[in-house]
Amino acid sequence: MYQCCIFDLDGTIINTLHSLKKTVNETIKQFGYGPIDEYHVRYFVGDGYKKLVERTLVYCGDTELTHYEEALTVYDEMFKKYCLYQMEPYAGMPEFLKMLKEKGIRIAVVTNKAHDRAVECVETVYGPGFFDKITGEGKGMKCKPDPEGALKTAEEFHVEPSECLYFGDTNTDMKTGINAGMDTVGVLWGFRDREELEAFKPKYIISHPDEIRSLFNETNENSPASVGER
Questions:
Q1: Tens digit of pLDDT for each residue in 207-219?
Q2: Helices and strands, counts by H and E, the chain
Q3: Tell me, what DSSP letter sits at residue 50?
Q4: Strands 4-7 and 164-168, how do they pair?
Q5: What architecture is domain 4-15+88-216?
Q6: Name one GO cellular component term (predicted).
Q7: Residue 205: which H helix or E strand, with range?
Q8: CB-based contacts of 102: which residues, under 8 Å, 6+ apart?
Q9: How far is Cα 182 from Cα 193, in angstroms, rounded to an integer?
Q10: Three-state DSSP class for residue 45
């Protein structure tokens, strides 16, 4: 049985699309750009805020990234203000996480979101101490898809990578799970589509957390027979 579940944050355990869109649009407005729509925000996020700012500026026409350094500073200021804007947990996720905890499964978050903001978001939605560990960008860990954050989490919990499930909604997450040697779960309720996830052949693809509950039944020894067919 799996002993640990590691989750991406944005698009996996919390719908932060509105807060990200609000933050990036308030940022680029300072430079006379925007706004950009949710579709593009979905595809610009996932690799940390620096990449988000870079991709957004290029899309808006600043191909030489003239405003890049200043925009990073503005983004940081705006994100402190809007990081909690209209965010909410995905359907079924609170119940699924509670079930894992009741069964003694360790749960953690590994995200490319800045660490302080990640903790703020997760604890606002799920409460302080609900997750056993939260690791965000800026805590000395390399950004995903580097597996360092996931592997350090497994090491701290004294479990093997093979005993972990890594959940995420983007190609970056699929790469992270694969690079860490963990079984990977692609979730379809997040920011990307099935085609993107399937390209990396995750162990499971699910459209609702309930679809993977059977893995944690006491009589189920990691059999994937009926779970999240790809």
A1: 999 999 999 985 3
A2: 9, 8
A3: H
A4: parallel
A5: 3-Layer(aba) Sandwich (3.40)
A6: cytosol
A7: strand 204-206
A8: none
A9: 21
A10: coil
Separation between Cα atoms, residue 80 and residue 84, nearest integer Å: 9
Rounded to 5°, the CA angle 27-29-32 comes to 130
Q: What is the pLDDT of residues 154-194, one digit of tens each?
A: 999 999 999 999 999 999 999 999 999 999 999 999 999 99
Q: What would the mean pLDDT of 91-105 be, rounded to a whole number? A: 97
Percent of the chain with pLDDT over 90: 88
CA distances from residue 16 to 125, 166, 220, 227 in whole angstroms, order as listed: 11, 19, 33, 27
Note whether 173 and 144 are within 8 A (CB).
Answer: yes
pLDDT of residue 146: 96
Which residue in 146, 123, 105 sits closest to 6, CA to CA? 105
Kindly list the domain boundaries of the chain, sorted by start residue. 4-15+88-216, 17-82
Tell me what pLDDT residue 230 has: 53
The CATH number of the domain covering residues in 17-82? 1.10.150
Residue 73, token pair as written in the block: 């500073």
Helices (H), the chain: 17-29, 38-44, 49-60, 68-82, 93-102, 115-126, 148-156, 171-180, 194-198
Rounded to whole angstroms, how far apart are CA atoms 121 and 147?
Answer: 22
Q: Look up residue 113 and give its two tokens.
A: 């979101």
Sign of the dihedral defined by the CA atoms of residues 201, 227, 154, 172, in that order: positive
Residue 182 contacts residue 204 (beta carbons within 8 Å)? no
**Residue 22 region by backbone torsions, left for phi larger than 0, else alpha for psi between -120 and 50, else beta:** alpha
Instruction: Quote the tokens at residue 138.
Output: 């800026």
- Cβ neighbours of 54 (radius 10 Å): 18
Q: Taking Cα atoms as reference points, which of 181, 190, 176, 178 lies closest to residue 141?
A: 176
